[in-house]
Amino acid sequence: MKVLRLAPLAALLFAAGLAIAAPLSAGLDKSGFDPASRAQDDLFRAANGRWVDTTEIPADKADYGTFIQLRDKSDKEVRAIVEELAAKKQKAGSVEQKISAFYGSYIDTATIDKAGLKPVKSALARIDAIKSPKDLATWMGSVQGAANPPINLWVMADFKDPTTNRALTWQGGLGMPDRDYYLKDDERFAKARAAYEGYLATLARLTGDKHPEATAKQVFALEKRIAEVHWDKVENRNPVKIYNPMTPDELAKAAPGLDWPTFLRAGSLAGIDRLSVSQPSATIAIAKILGETPLAELKPYLKLRTLDEAADVLPKSFRDAHFAFHGKALTGTTEDKPRWQKGTAEVNGALGEAVGQVYVARHFPPAYKARMQELVANLMKAYGQSIDGLTWMSPTTKLQAKDKLSKYMTKIGYPDTWRDYSKLTVKEGDAFGNRERSGQFEWQRIAAKAGKPVDRGEWGMTPQTVNAYYNPSLNEIVFPAAILQPPFFDMTADDAANYGAIGAVIGHEISHGFDDQGSQFDGDGKLQNWWTDEDRKAFEALGAKLVAQYETYEPIPGHKLNGMLTLGENIADLSGLQIAYKAYKLSLGGKDAPVIDGYTGDQRFFLGWSQAWREKVREERSLQLLTIDPHSPPKFRANGAAVNHDGFHAAFGTKPGDGMFKADAERIRIW
């Protein structure tokens, strides 16, 4: 990949140093603790109760807590970078000018309002021009990266040949978060459906449709047909089921409702020898729906999907309607996010690594990376020791597990090579066009990888992203710079809270290589079984116990957790916490941890873990997350993992009758 050279931008970079003179702190925010709650009864409440009781979710937030606060901080830091660039005249075509123009055009709502529907007219005209199945396939291929058509394309490492990139298909085309919103008989889902039909009618009305309600009903009915054939979230978590390689000819014969050669050619994937069809039955059924639905009925659907995707860069009436549905109805927020903050998200999506280069220089000192490398090394060592000590795994499988662990690649902070944005066109005052072009630019970058060797240096997140991930095909764990700060990672804090927070995050991501999904990939990232049959059965039995535990949790009345959907994340939470604790013990080198602020090292470890999951969620957003999110709600992440941890029970001396007590024989121990 070409290294991005930034001359004027480099003037914004500076090296940051760090000096620590004061004694190490406990790394805990005791102001958020609830003195009336005991960790023995409710660890989450003990560490976060006062904060939960006294904190109001901001009007523009669907949920609020540790992650959101850090994301707000990152957004403010990105805003400062962008506005500093915008304050100076930049060379035309330079990456500095592109960052400035992209952000400036997005936040300039006066110009967006004045332009009216003019920017989107050409996109709608392309839909009007569809006269044949071939035209439909051309449209669907051409909007990859800029819209959400019924069938989406992607390129990533081949599950069976992880050194080579392959194209794949993925089901799409829905305007609501998931198939359940269309199909489940539930009062909350019914309310969302009514709001969605109203939103579709508004979009139709704003574009001059004389029968907007009828159009909305017709479009909703078509989307419901698509939703009925979609695979659910649990099915989509099974890598064996979603890996279905076919040649383009085989796919065209299996799903004749779509002109596949035209679709792939328009999607810049002409000439590929094969691709993976992720949801075969859904793909075949969607192609059939497209083939048998009259174009006169498809066009309104395509137009409303286009308007929905573009609403945020269209006039105020569209933006307001978009927020009324996607914000108020789906997440419960009462105010839209500030335009500047949505603008930082837009810039991060379009030019994220260019901004990230400055972000890293300003906010990620070299000492942070060195400390993180030390933490990761201890976590890896602890994981290896844990594998050695497993009683449910045979020596044969242990050897394979240790081999996989030895091949992990760790990425911390930022990529070694920055992405090149020289071919991306950004225009002043063209928010709609900039978004469309940036989406197409990114898709062309992705499509060009098909059939080529995998670039193991590539990152899937920008440095300013508050998150982390594990990629099974590359067998890598990735920690962007923005998550490596308090309360997850505090350079001024004692190791206990750091291991309980960022250590458990590191352990979590390592554990994804050994969860119900990741454990199906070997150390080279290849999808193949490296387990004995007996060991796999023992592992699945432990997973079944975890499913049963989490399905007792009921975050909102009538809606319990889906234990199978959240299984992988729950395994990673539990295993990550267990491994982080062992790594913390290793870091002590046989010495006793000091008592700080009245808490032992072990107690600080678990309080740091719980504090990391501090969050409040609106009910509407909770319903959405319960439907689509493979993670458990924060309270159950904090308590659900700790209740199975021997170290937690020892640290706080739990006894029968305590809310968090779990008998030794009933505790679930995996890695």
Automatic annotation (TrEMBL):
Please give the SUPFAM superfamilies that the UniProt record associates with this protein.
Metalloproteases ('zincins'), catalytic domain
Q: Which GO terms describe its molecular function?
A: metal ion binding; metalloendopeptidase activity
Instruction: Name any Gene Ontology BP term.
Output: protein processing
Mind telling me which GO cellular component terms the entry cites? plasma membrane
Cofactor(s) essential for the protein: Zn(2+)
EC class name: hydrolase
Q: Name one Pfam family in it.
A: Peptidase_M13_N
Q: Is this entry keyworded Methyltransferase? A: no
Q: Which residues form the signal peptide?
A: 1-21
InterPro entries from the entry?
MetalloPept_cat_dom_sf, Peptidase_M13, Peptidase_M13_C, Peptidase_M13_dom_2, Peptidase_M13_N
Stretches assigned to the Peptidase M13 N-terminal domain:
40-415
**What EC numbers are recorded for this enzyme?**
3.4.24.-
Q: Which UniProt keywords apply?
A: Hydrolase, Metal-binding, Metalloprotease, Protease, Signal, Zinc
Q: Where is the Peptidase M13 C-terminal domain?
A: 467-667
Q: Which family does it belong to?
A: Belongs to the peptidase M13 family.
Q: What is this protein called?
A: Putative endopeptidase
In its UniProt entry, the species of origin is given as Niveibacterium umoris
